[in-house]
């Protein structure tokens, strides 16, 4: 941890997570139903009550615990470990994708399932009409 940041400064943690999520203060303000100035003030606060933190965490898409325990070092370690375990080592990220199924087979499966559902729906309607006709004949 650098000497410039305090580990307990929750406002800086909010700011860093917001920046990592590529979110502007205005966007966070809109998600919370407040103003950009309020977000700026929150990011300068050393302490924020838990209820407000829950709302902020939800708007940022993280858990309350992740927000409270965030550190730059942990984030860097996470991404370093992800890269080290990705197997791509020096290649473009995401180029080693392997498709384990034939998309046309999946399309045919979906079509067959829709056909079966339609046939069940038609049969249910026929049963309903038959039932109503029986009721009318009995009157």
TrEMBL record:
Q: Which residues form a coiled coil?
A: 107-134
Q: Which Gene3D superfamilies match?
A: lambda repressor-like DNA-binding domains (1.10.260.40)
SMART domains with a match to the protein in the record: HTH_XRE (SM00530)
Q: Which GO terms describe its molecular function?
A: DNA binding
Recorded superkingdom: Bacteria
Q: Which CDD domains does the entry mention? A: HTH_XRE
User: Which residue intervals define the domain HTH cro/C1-type in the entry?
Assistant: 14-67
Q: Which UniProt keywords apply?
A: Coiled coil, DNA-binding
PROSITE patterns per UniProt:
HTH_CROC1
Q: What is this protein called?
A: Transcriptional regulator
Provide the species name: Flavobacterium fluviale
